[in-house]
Amino acid sequence: MSAPESADHVSVHLTDCGHEDANVVFGALETAFPEGTGPARSETRASLSTADNPVIWCTIVDARTRSDAVSAPAPLTGAVTVDLFGPAHPVRQVQQKLAGVFDVEEHGTVSGEHEVEIRLKLTSLSES
């Protein structure tokens, strides 16, 4: 597990996705947990991933900035694997906010003494 910056910070790692899907997920996190300063997470540019050069998209979410704003369901081009690392309560807050925007499947949890790691699979919300 990677250590978050404080007791309210959650490390978010996205894999198995391209830049566009990473921006969609980061945009949902920006609405749910606004930073207030610096460039928006979804405006941060990096080299594009390829089969020979996979990318892990990472950010830190400060759960203290949790907003009551509700994001509209966000379309993804495919499934995105998300690993959340940090204290249990803030990690669950991030998971809950993601579940309001995407279909979320939990694919495992590892509990430590003071933190938890959860692997999620995000897909676009199903039309009901």
In helices, the fraction of residues equals 10-25%
Instruction: Tell me the span between the first and last alpha carbons.
Output: 36 Å
Low-confidence stretches: none
**Overall pLDDT score:** 84
**Largest sheet: spatial strand order:** 2-1-3-5-4
Succession of helices and strands: EHEEHEE
Description:
With 128 residues, the protein is an alpha+beta fold. The protein has one domain (9-124). The chain is built from two helices and five strands; from the N terminus they run E-H-E-E-H-E-E. It has helices at residues 19-32, 88-99; strands spanning 9-15, 57-62, 80-86, 102-111, 116-124. Strands 2-1-3-5-4 form a five-stranded antiparallel sheet, covered by helices on one side. A hairpin with a 4-residue loop joins strand 4 and strand 5. The N and C termini lie far apart (36 Å).
Secondary structure elements and their pairing?
Layout: E1 9-15, H1 19-32, E2 57-62, E3 80-86, H2 88-99, E4 102-111, E5 116-124
Antiparallel strand pairs: 1-2, 1-3, 3-5, 4-5
